[in-house]
Amino acid sequence: MSMPNQSSTLAWNLLFLCWLVATVAMLGSLFFSEVMMFPPCIMCWYQRICMYPLVIIFLVALFPLDKNVLKYAQPFVYIGLFFAIYQNLLYYKILPESVQPCSQGVSCTSDYINWFGFFTIQMLSLIAFSLILILLTLFKRNISK
Amino acid sequence: MKKQTLIIASLFILVFAYFGGSYLYKNQYAKSVDFMAKENTALFVRPHSPVYGEESATTYIIDFFDPACETCKAFHPFVESIMEKHPGKIKLVLRYAPFHTDSYYVVQMLEAAKLQDKYDQTLKVLFKYQGQWASHHSPNIALIWGYLPEAGIDVEKLKDDMKRPEIDAAIKQDIADAKTLGVTKTPQFFVNGKPLVKFGYKELEELIESEL
User: Fold this and answer.
1) ipTM greater than 0.95, yes or no?
2) Is B5 exposed, middle or buried (0-12, 13-18, 19+ CB in 10 A)?
3) pTM for this structure?
4) Under an 8 A CB cutoff, do A20 and B6 touch?
């Protein structure tokens, strides 16, 4: 009898981690632009548009645990992930620079930070969206059991 | 209940980390600039930099600006009014941070105008018509030639002088110093080497008055 309870606790924890990742990503991006004064490029804005609502969506879905959260959260995650992958492909020059839509204003392939030669802001965003997707997938499996 | 506590605790930690981090970051920035101000004063005033104010003044306002930047234009008379309030005490040093596309050429014009002794007049004319030649943040260089005679500029001579390598070197030096000092937005002010950390008219006035 304790099984369903345990499984829903795990589901809650997974969703909590999703919320944590989204919140850290939001505060991190705000830190870069508002404190360190890095001007955000257009790609960053598209990813912010997808990331910030997730903070609220996950928080609301935690009290009480709402399994329908997948339906509302997934579109944001997929769209954000799409832009994150696209921007990283531009950054690593896998896609040519000429097709990038952000030629005006701030370049989307510039290095504001580069920790250990790997962790650029572009990469941090990709990691955040991927983590959320992985956690949400685990969440999905958990609730469909 | 435990779950709510977890959320509130996480939120508290994250928000604390954010504000603590920004405090540390700004503090660190002010300290590193302060260090540079003591160790390397040349970063703030270069021999080519236009300086306003009396020779005996001891308070230096360093103004990194872009001629196409609206806020720079708005701050210019404000800084002048503070200087008038404290006659003989303040020196204003103008530095370039041409962040807008094509602002580089406008700065070249300013530097070339200096050779005709019309620097101040040219700056005033540039700011006066800024709304027309720099609308929507994309400077229209072609328009500027028409305004320059108002400043008493010989446009043909200016066009030749703009190509001088020493002008190019001076602007590149300013851009390099702006980078070293962490200037990412214009205008950025330093008063006696202290950066204006929180941007605003009141904040600038307070910083200047604390250094008089």
Assistant:
1) no
2) exposed
3) 0.67
4) no
